[in-house]
Amino acid sequence: MSGLPYIEDLERLVPMARAIDVLEEALAAGFDPETAPARAAVPAGAGEFLLMPAAAGRYAGVKVVTVAPGNPMRGLPRIQGTYLLFDGDTMTPLAAMDGLALTALRTPAVSALAVRHLAPQSASSLLVYGTGPQAWGHVLAMREVRPVDRVTVVGRDHDRAVALALKCAEAGLAASAAVGAPPPGALVPLEEADLIACCTTSRNPLFPGKLTGNNVTVAAVGSHEPDAREIDDDLVARATLVVEARTAALSEAGDVVIPLRGGTITSGHLAGNLADLVAGRVALREGPRVFKSVGMAWEDLVVAAAAYEAWAH
């Protein structure tokens, strides 16, 4: 079994642009995200396992993620994990790789794929909520699909927000940081953002959706629990709403489940899933466009297989 442990290795084997393309190729070839197995949560020790199996084409794989809420107090990551890739015919183990490195690559790649089909071609200003690896990954990913030249980083921690803004500036972007207690949307000109990436652990909306412009495209990726959300009812109700898979969104996406539960929208408000979007089957209505992601196992499999094939050849 070969080992591909670090994010730098994965980025070298599967650059962001390639990750976006292989995800699109899988959907264009007919993969149906509605058939992907659901994520399983299993209590274990002082936390839980999240098990994410998938099979498609020549490969099968599983991501095993551990969530330990007490780890940050120990100076350890709250979430850790490993990905195992197998031959789909013989189920022979082929590769192991760092689960968080894989997630850090595939999640922004999925968002960028959605943005490629949702956002106006001229979208150039990006507002990022969050200061961690996903926030930076989304900056890189959005640059691959739209001419992003301005970034505003919004976070609770001053030093982290400024550090990410400086990193963006070093990458040649006009960048600034906004820091404050929720709702931090009051601190930034939401109506001027072409793209918004929500990459936080917040359980409550990050900004007033009514303040966003009609041409904005929002990718919300931070939560996968039915009682947690990053965007509010106002934004969801106004938007063309696309999800990875209806089945996953209706069970895990609080950004969708909460407005449904409250009667703000009905299930018919979902304009389509990611496969529909790639195939051109989503009708884009007037107003904002929203892509809600919870993270699915097929995405890990597609990118992990691309990394393995690049390494093997």
From TrEMBL:
SUPFAM superfamilies to which the protein is assigned, alphabetical: NAD(P)-binding Rossmann-fold domains
Family matches, as InterPro entries: NAD(P)-bd_dom_sf, ODC_Mu_crystall, ODC_N
Top-level taxonomic group: Bacteria
Name this protein carries in UniProt: Ornithine cyclodeaminase family protein
Species the sequence originates in: Nonomuraea mangrovi
